[in-house]
Amino acid sequence: HVQLVESGGASVQTGGSLRLSCVASGYVQSTRSRRCMAWFRQAAGMEREGVAVIHTGADTTEYIDSVKGRFTISQDNAKDSVYLQMNGLKPEDAGLYYCASHLDHGAGCRLLRSRYANWGQGTQVTVS
Questions:
Q1: Which of 93, 109, 113 lies closest to 48 in space, CA to CA?
Q2: Could you read off the pLDDT of 5-21 as tens digits, one per residue?
Q3: Exposed end of the chain (fewer CB within 10 Å): N or C?
Q4: What are the backbone angles phi and psi of residue 31, rounded to the nearest 5°?
């Protein structure tokens, strides 16, 4: 049973920075190099959207256009953790940020919500 626990959400001013963390547990260790770990966000009244994803084996990443150059996703495999460094925050970045994951069975990692089997409870980011 995979569990994802996020932390790091807070209220910041426009232009500020935050670092979100997600710790995964319950995965079989042999899958460490073939997971897709992603961050999604959902603003009030909006659809949940994928923000960034990282392949834990290839260390490749993908971002939505609106955060490129401002957000960085990274991982620490030894800690089964993934991070989202967010710089230059804008009010439109506010929302509930979710960590999500699935195993890569050969199709690679994409920011498609339907692919993700495991979800955390979310951490709130407020930008004013």
A1: 113
A2: 999 999 999 999 999 99
A3: N
A4: -90, 5
